[in-house]
Write a structure and sequence with these properties.
By secondary structure, the protein is mostly helical.
């Protein structure tokens, strides 16, 4: 599996679970620790391979170790959260609130 498709797969899974905003917050907050996390994942890889395929584990290690892939994941998640509203669309009206004209 290509790394870009792995990033897309992870972004799609996160957004399908409805965890896009918390994931973006988590990724931004833990960006400095990504490389360290990849090294810890390498240490735990023999045990993890009992439960997860070695290819998936290695793809996650590569994602965590490479800052460009980390940024691609955040970019894709941000694109999934950005609404595609028409700029000419009327603003949403809240019940009980008078809109000024």
């Amino acid at each position: 599996m290509d790394q870009m498709t792995f990033v897309e797969k992870v972004a799609h899974k996160i957004s399908s679970l409805g965890l896009t905003a918390p994931a973006i917050l988590f990724l931004e907050a833990h960006k400095p620790l990504a490389f360290l996390s990849s090294q810890l994942l390498l240490i735990a890889q023999p045990t993890l391979n009992l439960f997860v395929s070695s290819h998936s584990t290695q793809s996650m290690v590569d994602l965590l170790a490479d800052p460009t892939q980390w940024e691609q994941l955040m970019t894709q998640l941000e694109q999934k959260t950005s609404p595609t509203l028409d700029p000419l669309e009327t603003p949403l009206r809240r019940p009980g609130v008078q809109n000024a004209k």
